[in-house]
Write a structure and sequence with these properties.
The chain is built from 5 helices and 7 strands; from the N terminus they run βαααβββαβαββ. The chain is an alpha+beta fold and 186 residues long. Strands 1-2-3-4-5-7-6 form a 7-stranded mixed beta sheet, with helices on both faces. The N and C termini lie far apart (37 Å). The structure holds coenzyme A (COA). The site of coenzyme A has 19 residues, from strand 4, helix 4 and helix 5. Coenzyme A binds next to strand 4, helix 4 and helix 5.
Amino acid sequence: MGAVVLTRERPLSDAPIRVLPPNEAARRLDELAALLVDAVESGASVNFMRGLTPDEAAGFWRGQLPGLADGSRILMAAESSGRIVGTAMVTFAHQPNQPHRADITKMLVHSGLRRQGLGARLLAAAEAAARAAGRTLLVLDTESGSAGERLYARRGWIKVGEIPNFSYDPDGRLRAATVFYKDVQP
Ligand SMILES: CC(C)(COP(=O)(O)OP(=O)(O)OC[C@H]1O[C@@H](n2cnc3c(N)ncnc32)[C@H](O)[C@@H]1OP(=O)(O)O)[C@@H](O)C(=O)NCCC(=O)NCCS
């Protein structure tokens, strides 16, 4: 996306959110990559440093494809004007003694479309997908003080605590992370 101007025929509140099948994710790696680059360029702590290239970002998503194909993770995607503008990934714990647990990662909303409720809808969709798959204990971490932290708290996630100096933000400053969990049993 980056330099692409986002125009909308419909309000963002109508943007469809669905499970992106692995073959479609493979076909749309460039859009997923652009979304990840946009997040890093906006200063978000999403495991990468500033300067992430579209090729590197595509490599990250390519690495998720086997998990999408074998059913060990689910990628939710939001679309607007035919482009992927938001994601949330549910990764099932692989440990035999945690068949009820999953991690939520890559909660991303394009920087030009934030603060309109799409993040909250994506998170709700990811929680519902996890619950439908029998994963009722969800875990995630996020940069302390970030928009993500406010979003998770607002949606009823429980703050476990904060880990100081957990990771570098894209500009090389060490940041704390806040760990959350949510029990989504029906
Ligand atoms: C975290 C992230 C996914 C949230 O996405 P989002 O679409 O902006 O989320 P929402 O719109 O649901 O909520 C964000 C804010 O907008 C506000 N908001 C929601 N709808 C609104 C509306 N219609 N009008 C005005 N404000 C609105 C919310 O109250 C919230 O306010 P807050 O920041 O003061 O808490 C997004 O900021 C992002 O992609 N960040 C970069 C990547 C990242 O850090 N991800 C988390 C990693 S774990």
